[in-house]
């Protein structure tokens, strides 16, 4: 996979979706169509955010990308991206 830095909007979209996960044991399956992103943009943003420790858990597999609740780093990153 060719690494590209994801857009701020793509990161906000994924972090906002994951902010609705309240249980640390629950995983949210990311669907690029429901998020309004291209598949490549979603995967690039998810990889970027997981490498920075933004989720309590995550999986990348044949079924797609799933993320858990936001970690403290994820909440801080969402706040910084959304509020500038």
Task: Describe what you observe in this structure.
The protein is an alpha+beta fold and 84 residues long. It has a single domain (8-83), classed as Arc Repressor Mutant, subunit A (Orthogonal Bundle), CATH 1.10.10. It has 4 helices and 3 strands, in the order H-E-H-H-E-E-H. It has helices at 8-18, 32-35, 39-51, 72-83, and strands at residues 28-29, 58-61, 64-67. It has a 3-stranded antiparallel beta sheet with strand order 1-3-2, with helices on one face. Helix 1 packs across helix 3 (39-51) and helix 1 (8-18) crosses helix 4 (72-83). The longest helix is centred in the middle third of the chain and has 13 residues, at 39-51. The protein is globular, with a radius of gyration of 12 Å. The termini are far apart. The mean pLDDT is 92.
